Amino acid sequence: MYDWMSVEVERKFVCSADNLKTLEEIGAVCVGQHQIHDQYFDTPMFDLTLRDMWLRKRKGCWELKCPTVDGTEGEQSKAALLCTRYKEITNLAEIQLRVREAIKDVCEDSEMSSSHVEESWLSKVNLVCFAEFTTVRRSFTLEEEEAVQIDLDQADFGYHVGEIEVLVPEGGDVQSALEKIERTAQKLGLTGDQRVEGKMNVYLKRNHPEHYAKLLSKRVL
Ligand code: V4E
């Protein structure tokens, strides 16, 4: 399968000093601290995010997150309901294809081959940056939970959030990822039964409140 297409299964949690202590106690290994600068793009009418499609540029690379249908949606456990699942696409040609498909009714017919310089494809489909922020991320792993990463994020607009995530290759075992995340959440002592807001929720609430309200009403967020 394609290595540029995987499914990110993720549970966010409220991040506190206690989590750091617990991470130490359960023997989590800090695998790095990075600064991440993200720019998110959409049409002026927000045609992508209204379809739950999130296009961003991170470290000079394009990434698109879009909803996934993986067959685990039906009867969902409480633990699964706390997780999000998004297809993550990093191949520019595939991203352009999906973006063009999503906004074909609103953009002029345009040729978007990967040979175009990327700024030209942005203007051709009328994509503009609607969110930009930097995050300091500390990442941890647990020896006994292969492929699980725990991130503690501090966004520059003053929001802290934790994430437990597993990247599943396209067609891989989402159920087992959900189980790994649940076991990790229990080790961390997470008790909340509500989904926790991501950085973008908080950013949009502050900077694009009308669009945020629309996303809530359409149940995208
Ligand atoms: C998918 C999504 C957005 C794009 C950003 O995704 P997120 O995982 O929140 O950001 P980040 O920086 O942690 O990315 P990573 O480094 O893990 O790839 S913005 C909003 N969504 C949808 C969404 C949702 N509906 N509910 C929750 C809890 N999170 C995200």
Textual characterization of the structure:
Helices cover 29% and strands 34% of the residues. By secondary structure, the chain is of the alpha+beta class. It has one domain (5-217): Hypothetical Protein Pfu-838710-001 (Beta Barrel), CATH 2.40.320.10. The protein has an 8-stranded antiparallel barrel. Helix 6 (199-207) packs across helix 7. The longest helix is centred in the C-terminal third of the chain and has 14 residues, at 174-187. The chain is globular, with a radius of gyration of 18 Å. The two termini are 30 Å apart. The mean pLDDT is 89. It binds Thiamine Triphosphate (V4E). Thiamine Triphosphate (V4E) binds at residues 10, 12, 54, 65, 84, 86, 163, 165, 195, 198-200, 221. Thiamine Triphosphate is lined by residues 10, 12, 54, 65, 84, 86, 163, 165, 195, 198-200, 221.
- What radius of gyration results from the CA coordinates? 18 Å
| Uncertain stretches | none
Q: Supply the helix-strand structural class.
A: alpha+beta
Q: Tell me the major beta sheet.
A: 8 strands, antiparallel, barrel
- Number of separate helices: 7
The CATH class designation is Mainly Beta
Helix-strand string: EHEEEHEHHEEEHHH
Task: Quote the average pLDDT.
Answer: 89
Please provide a brief summary of the model.
It contains seven helices and eight strands; from the N terminus they run βαβββαβααβββααα. With about 220 residues, it is α+β, with helices and mostly antiparallel strands.
